[in-house]
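Build the 3D complex.
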Amino acid sequence: MTNELKAVPRHVAIVMDGNGRWAKKRFLPRFFGHKAGVDVLVKVVQACIDRNIEHLTVFAFSSENWKRPSDEVSGLMGLVLAAVSRYLARMGSMGVRIRIVGDREAVSAKLRNAWNEAESATCHNTKLTLSVAFNYGGRWDIVQACKAAMLAGVPPDQLTEAKLSEFMAMSYAPDPDLFIRTGGEVRISNFMLWQVAYTEFVFSDCLWPEFGEAQLDAAIQAYRDRDRRFGGVKAAPAVVAA
Ligand code: IPE
Ligand code: IPE
Ligand code: MG
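Done.
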C-alpha cells in the first residue's frame, strides 16, 4: 500500500471504554461517565470529518452489557434516547449519515423508533457514516449473516468469504483500517470479529471521556507507522542500475 493510501484510514472503529472509571475517579455515579462519553463522541465525529475519514464505527453497547445492573442499563437506554433528540439535527448539519448495527429486537420500541428516525433523517448525508454498534456482538453478526445467507438460499458451495460478507451487518462499509480501544483493556470484547482480520490495533490508556483530537492523531500516526503486509512481503526498494 502506498503512503498516500495509508495517510488517512478510510474506516476507524472505536471501543469507547473507560466511562465508569472516569466517573469513579471523580466520585460520580457511572452514569455521568456515559453522559460525558456522548459529548466526546460528537467532538470525535467532527474531528474525523476534519481528517477526511469516511467511516467511524463506535461500540456503544455490547450484547454482553445486559449483564450490568439494571439501573445502569436503563440509564444508558435513556441517555441514548436523549442523545438522539439532542444531537440528531447537529449530526445532520455536519453531513453525518447515522446507521445502527446490532440486534434491535431486544431494545424498546421507543428506542427502535428513535434509531429509525435517526437513520432516515440522515440517509442522504455523505460526509461521514457514523455506525453505532448497539446491542451488537461480533459473534451475533456472524450468526445472523449465516442465517440470512441460508434464508436467501445461498447453496453451501457458493458460500465464499465475499458472499458471507454481503450478509454482515456492515456490508456497506470497507473493513476497518484502524481499531482504537480506550480505557486500557487490551481485548476486543466481541467487537467486529469478522471485519478486523487485517485491521491495525491501537490500545490507549486514555479513558473515553478524556479522548480528543490529540489521542486521535496519535492513533492515526501509529497507524501510518505500521507496515501493512496483508500476509504478503514488504515491497523491495527499487534497484537502481549502476
Ligand atoms: C464503556 O465504558 C461504555 C459501555 C460499555 C456502555 P464502561 O462503562 O465499560 O467503563 P469502565 O470500563 O467500567 O470504566
Ligand atoms: C466493551 O466494553 C463494550 C463497549 C465499549 C460498548 P466493556 O467494558 O463492556 O468490555 P469488558 O467487559 O471490559 O470486556
Ligand atoms: Mg468497560
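The radius of gyration is 19 Å.
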